[in-house]
Cytochrome bo(3) ubiquinol oxidase subunit 4
Amino acid sequence: MHKDVSPTEGHGLRHCVVGLALSLLLTALAFWAVMGHALPHELIMPAVVFFGVIQLLVQLYYFLHLGLSPEQRENTAYLILAVMLITVIVGLSLWVMHNADVSMMPGSMSTMDAVHHE
């Protein structure tokens, strides 16, 4: 007997509870890394970033149901394109603001100094 499998099968309550448990565990580990003083000072920030990235992946998989299965590839592709677009827009905006800041006349330079500087 062949059973029809719906695209959302496997994403029931148990699936959400596993995602919640993993998210809480990763949050607790990040909290422990900061407040537990078990890690050297220079490893605290990389540990928090690591736990944050893993938690992002857990939430994308368990709550947004993104993955590589055929039913989910289109949504995953849309997410990747959106992240790339946001990265380009934010990155170029920061680049323009940095160049504008570098090109601005320092406040301590007078107008006469700026004219003679050219």
The chain has two domains: 1-65, 69-118. Confidence is low (pLDDT under 50) at residues 1-8. DSSP finds four helices and no strands in the chain. Residues 69-118 form one domain.
